[in-house]
Amino acid sequence: NLPNGERSFLPFKFMLGKQEVIRGWEEGVAQVSVGQRAKLTIPDDAYGATGHPGIIPPHATLVFHVELLKLE
């Protein structure tokens, strides 16, 4: 975790259309070109009233700063 509450991660792979990530990532990353950075704001319905205990509180709006490194 970073001091402002953000978390930093290493690159990871996923396949669009396979429901490997939350819907906001599917929709947002599909609109990004290789080398482009984007800010994805995911509404609270991503994890809803339950959240993800210990990580994401209930009804949380999530903000991700992403960069598409490559397509395979």
Topology:
Blueprint: H1 23-29, E1 37-42, E2 62-67
**Head-to-tail CA distance between termini:** 30 Å
Task: Please tell me the total number of domains.
Answer: 1
Count of individual helical segments: 1
Show unreliable segments: none
Class computed from helices, strands and strand pairing: mainly beta
Quote the CATH topology.
Answer: Chitinase A, domain 3
Q: What number is the mean pLDDT?
A: 88
The rounded Rg comes to: 13 Å
Q: In CATH, what is the class?
A: Alpha Beta
Let me know the largest β-sheet: 2 strands, antiparallel
Helix content: under 10%
Shape: globular
Please state how the strands of the largest beta sheet are arranged side by side.
Answer: 1-2
Q: Would you list the SSEs in sequence order as H and E?
A: HEE
Question: Quick one: how many beta strands?
Answer: 2
| Strand percentage | 15-25%
Architecture in CATH?
Roll
Tags for this entry?
single chain, 1 helix, mainly beta, Chitinase A, domain 3, 72 residues, EC 5.2.1.8, two-stranded antiparallel sheet, peptidyl-prolyl cis-trans isomerase activity
